[in-house]
Design a protein that fits this description.
The structure holds 3 protein chains of 3 kinds.
Chain A (H helix, E strand, L loop, with lengths): L2 H37 L4 H5 L2 E2 L6 E2 L2 H32 L3 H16 L2 H15 L6 H26 L2 H9 L4 H30 L2 H6 L18 H10 L4 H32 L1
Antiparallel strand pairs in A: 1-2
Chain B lengths: L1 H37 L10 E6 L4 H15 L2 H4 L9 E6 L2 H10 L4 E4 L5 H7 L2 E10 L2 E3 L5 H4 L2 E2 L1 H9 L5 H4 L9 E5 L4 H11 L9 E3 L2 H10 L3 E3 L3 H6 L5 E5 L6 H6 L5 E9 L4 H10 L2 H9 L3 E2 L2
Chain C lengths: L1 H40 L2 H6 L3 E2 L6 E2 L2 H31 L3 H16 L2 H19 L8 H37 L4 H12 L1 H17 L2 H6 L16 H8 L8 H31 L2
Antiparallel strand pairs in C: 1-2
Helix pairs in contact in C: 1-11, 3-6, 3-8, 4-6, 5-6, 6-7, 6-8, 8-11, 10-11
Classes of the chains: A mainly alpha, B alpha/beta, C mainly alpha.
Chain lengths: ~280, ~300, ~290
């Protein structure tokens, strides 16, 4: 190789090494930073107690926020997965024309692109005001559900398509109705993948704060008793603790709790993914 | 099986939307009939929960009073034996005084919390407004303790404050020669908020604040900024200064020190009332809670948080 | 009997799909309608090109040019930083690592993508902004740069995973041939994989840009929220952060309220354009 090639090669190698180092450093730093600072704040009391102190949040724990976040995630997942799974089923098995299929894809893509704060605006005006649901678990949950709908749909569609063609073709050949095939054959095969997709999307919903600021999150609330009560949520609580300068220590703790829960969800979903691969 | 589950879930979801949506109106006639048998009259349904929305300055106060209230009584029947045995639920959220008015107008919240006077057009729009003044808060002009300004002069005239906040004085050495040539970091509240309006009226007049001033979304955020930046100056609320003793240095304005007495008697000019407002009559349980808020206990908490209670 | 079940099932599926699609249409129409009220009062041209945003001054000034520019500027910085780092890491991930490391690395990337944006904003505020203030003695560390750096960290996982996918495919196709011909790996990557991956790199840019411009919380916490013309080291304001901050206090029905919707609408239009480009590019890659 001539000299200029050697130089280019050298620069190339430096570039990719530096890039990888940069990424690794960033990841290690962010996770390490939160773990180190947050672990000081975490103890049994923090997880299970209500926020206390003056101003509220500077002492005590974040239990209502944890419960609130979990409930929000549950509602968002239920709402989104019903719609997303149906859309995926329709697109893969029932849709006859390519144009409609592309159209649906376009719509789903666009939905993923709507900024979460705009969805929050929409949720506020439609759910909180027009439908008089008020700032509640339901309004916030549905808004989050709209936000994660495209993620579930795309993943589920991918899963359904990857199903062994053999199963699909032989079903058709045997005259099995599409509904039967989907229900008794495909869904059981894909079950774990679908659940893992829903879980991941749920984790995403749990971490989002923009859509819930206007539709249901409050600074102080007990554990939600009904669908129509407002809730506390971990990401929003973190935002308030930081923004108002209430308690840095508690903020670290909240961030850590949030990340740990998300990590758990991630791990569960990866495990499910691995188990799912065994089926095929 | 899955189809039936999703169908069922779908139906449940739709049902729950309808129920919670109409629940507020439907529950009325039902509750009235049953309670009419027990009581003499209950003109409105009993709401075990109430919501407060508005000023981020008042929010911690209401949260604190609410926590105490819930801890002491837990269920409504302990507050007053004529109330049913339901858990007390009080929700507080903060979005600024403007948001408080908006929430009351739009009915998304029972009470609005304001850290300023209710404007006339707001009173008109609300119509039947019931207001409770809980105390007075003042806006101090505060700097970071590491700012040498305090050692040189602990008093700023309204003119100087105006020049600093408008950007006419851009660097600290313009305020006083012995200071460093560092840019003044001006921290204000969001332009639409009650706090800024009070500041604008009492100090700035017609002059605009400098365009690149940091607009903090809440008083807590403003205070956090001044605490962590030694070149910062901002109009931190009196209550916040007390809650963060030592981390903020309030300056005198026109020779008047921001103390409880000066604020109460009006000689400190940048002050604002802390108000809770509701549209229409209060229900009995709301009245019960507000009675506690305006009582000695409530004033104690207000004072502990650093404000000047109305009593 | 079977027929009935079948029909009911397919009907439900079609119905739910229809609802989902209607939902999106509903959202867009709703935002459009609310913004329209605004555009009747203030011409869209003035809205997009004026330089002052002061909804509560009198008369109120409602123009978002600096804010639009701020949104684009911050995302642009983010991409400029994230792209080289992301592509470089994707190269290493796809071509220089074995299966085990790949699995671990991909999970880590997923974790990075899963960190909520408030947490990023939180860390950004405490680390980045502080860093700028201490090391470079900015008067205040909130700046376009802080927002850009933070966004770049958030964009990294998207760029890496998109590029990694396509690069791995190309690598698998060509690695045997080039090693048989005695070509070094780095040469193969430079001359074959990178040019082949151009389209997916482009797609990842568009994806990350879309994500960055819509990002609310993290950016809001570090850019200073001053609606002035953006300069690299000065504060700025982005559309999502504007909406998040002012929505709470804009009275429903007031001009301010509709102006916020209008700015959301402008943001959506920009994003729709970007998304459509992405869609067509992706179509071309998968040929």
């Amino acid at each position: 190789m001539d000299v200029s090639e050697k130089v280019k090669d050298y620069i190339f190698k430096i570039w990719i090494v530096l890039s990888t180092l940069a990424v690794v450093t960033v990841v290690v730093f962010i996770l390490g930073y939160i773990f180190k600072n947050g672990s000081k704040a975490i103890n049994m009391e923090f997880i299970f107690d209500n926020p206390k102190g003056m101003p509220i949040g500077s002492e005590g724990g974040v239990f209502p926020a944890i419960v609130g976040s979990l409930f929000l995630m549950a509602i968002a997942c239920i709402f989104a997965s019903i719609l997303a799974i149906s859309t995926a089923i329709y697109t893969v098995f029932y849709c006859k024309s390519n144009k409609i299929e592309s159209f649906i894809h376009l719509i789903v893509q666009c939905m993923a692109g709507i900024p979460s704060i705009v969805l929050g605006l929409f949720g506020y005006t439609l759910l909180v005001l027009y439908l008089r649901l008020g700032r509640s678990l339901l309004s916030a949950g549905i808004t989050l559900g709209i936000m994660i709908f495209p993620y579930i749909e795309v993943r589920v569609e991918k899963t359904l398509r990857e199903v062994n063609k053999f199963v699909v073709d032989s079903s058709y050949a045997l005259g099995v109705s599409t509904g039967y095939m989907i229900f008794k054959l495909i869904i059981p095969l894909c079950r774990t993948d679908i659940i893992s997709a829903i879980l991941l999307a749920g984790g995403f919903a749990m971490g989002a704060s923009a859509p819930i600021i206007l539709t249901g999150a409050v600074i102080f609330a007990p554990i939600p008793k009904s669908l129509s009560s407002p809730v506390m949520a971990l990401p929003f609580h973190l935002y308030i603790l930081t923004g108002e300068g209430i308690s840095l220590e508690k903020a670290y703790g909240t961030a850590l709790v949030l990340i740990i829960i998300l990590l758990l969800i991630n791990i569960i979903s990866v495990v499910l993914n691995l188990k799912g691969k065994e089926y095929r | 099986m899955k189809k039936r589950i999703s169908l069922l879930l779908c139906v449940i979801l739709m049902f729950s939307i309808v129920v919670t949506g109409c629940g507020k109106e439907e529950a009325n006639p039902v509750k009235e009939e049953s309670s009419a048998n027990e009581e003499t009259q209950e003109t409105s349904e009993f709401k075990a929960q109430m919501t407060f929305n508005g000023s981020s300055t008042l929010a911690p106060v209401m949260s604190a009073i609410a926590t105490d209230f819930i801890e002491e009584y837990t269920t409504w029947d302990k507050v007053d034996s004529s109330f049913p045995e339901e858990n007390i639920a009080i929700y507080v959220s903060a979005g600024g005084s403007g948001a408080g008015v908006k929430a009351v107008l739009e009915g998304t919240s029972d009470f609005g919390m304001l850290a300023r006077e209710i404007k006339d057009e707001e009173k008109e729009k609300i119509g039947d407004a019931k207001a409770f003044t809980l105390g007075i808060d003042a806006l101090t002009i505060s700097v970071n303790p590491e700012n040498p300004l305090y050692k040189i002069k602990d008093d700023l005239s309204s003119e100087e404050i105006k020049k600093i906040f408008s950007g006419e004085y851009k660097y600290w050495d313009e305020v006083d020669n012995s200071l460093e040539h560092k840019e003044i970091v001006v921290v204000i509240r969001d332009l639409g908020g009650g706090a800024h309006e009070v500041f604008q009226k009492s100090i700035m007049g017609d002059t605009q604040v400098r365009e690149d001033a940091i607009q903090a979304p809440s008083m807590g955020a403003l205070v956090a900024k001044v605490i962590e930046n030694k070149d910062a100056i901002g109009y931190a609320s009196f209550g916040m200064v007390n809650q963060n003793e030592g981390k903020l240095i309030p300056l005198k304005v026109d020779g008047v020190e921001p103390t409880k007495e000066n604020i109460a008697n009006g000689s400190y000019k940048i002050s604002r009332p802390l108000i809770v407002v509701k549209k229409g009559e209060l229900t009995k349980e709301q009245q019960a809670f507000m009675d506690v808020v305006t009582s000695e206990k409530g004033s104690e908490i207000i004072e502990k948080m650093g404000f000047v209670p109305i009593n | 009997m079977k027929n009935l079940k079948e029909n009911v099932f397919s009907l439900i599926v079609k119905l739910l799909t229809g609802i989902s699609l209607l939902l999106l249409a509903f959202i867009v129409i709703f935002i459009f309608k609310e913004s329209l009220v605004f555009f009747k009062e203030v011409s869209i041209f003035k809205f997009v090109s004026g330089r002052t945003w002061n909804p509560l001054g009198s008369p109120d000034k409602l123009s978002i040019l600096p804010i639009i520019l701020g949104t684009i500027y911050v995302s642009l910085i983010g991409i400029l930083i994230a792209l080289p780092i992301g592509v470089g890491s994707a190269v290493v991930l796809s071509s220089y690592t074995n299966q085990k490391v790949k699995r671990v690395a991909r999970s880590v990337i997923d974790i990075l993508a899963g960190i909520p944006s408030v947490v990023y904003g939180f860390v950004g505020l405490l680390v980045l902004v502080k860093f700028f203030e201490v090391k470079f003695s900015f008067a205040s560390g909130e700046s376009v740069l802080a927002g850009g750096v933070l966004l770049s960290i958030m964009m990294l996982p998207f760029i890496i995973s998109t590029c990694d996918e396509s690069m791995e495919k190309v690598y698998r196709d060509y690695s045997q041939y080039s090693s048989a011909l005695g070509v070094s790996k780095s040469y193969m990557i430079r001359k074959i994989i990178l040019p082949q991956s151009r389209k997916s790199i482009l797609a990842s840019i568009v994806l990350a840009l879309g994500r960055g411009m819509g990002e609310t919380m993290a950016v809001m916490m570090v850019i200073g929220n001053a609606p002035i013309m953006p300069k690299l080291l000065k504060k700025c304001q982005t559309i999502p952060s504007l909406i998040a901050l002012e929505m709470g206090m804009a009275e429903v029905g007031s001009l301010h309220y509709h102006a916020l919707f209008a700015s959301g609408f402008v943001l959506i239009i920009i994003l729709l354009i970007i998304n459509t480009i992405l869609y067509f590019i992706k179509k071309n890659i998968d040929i």
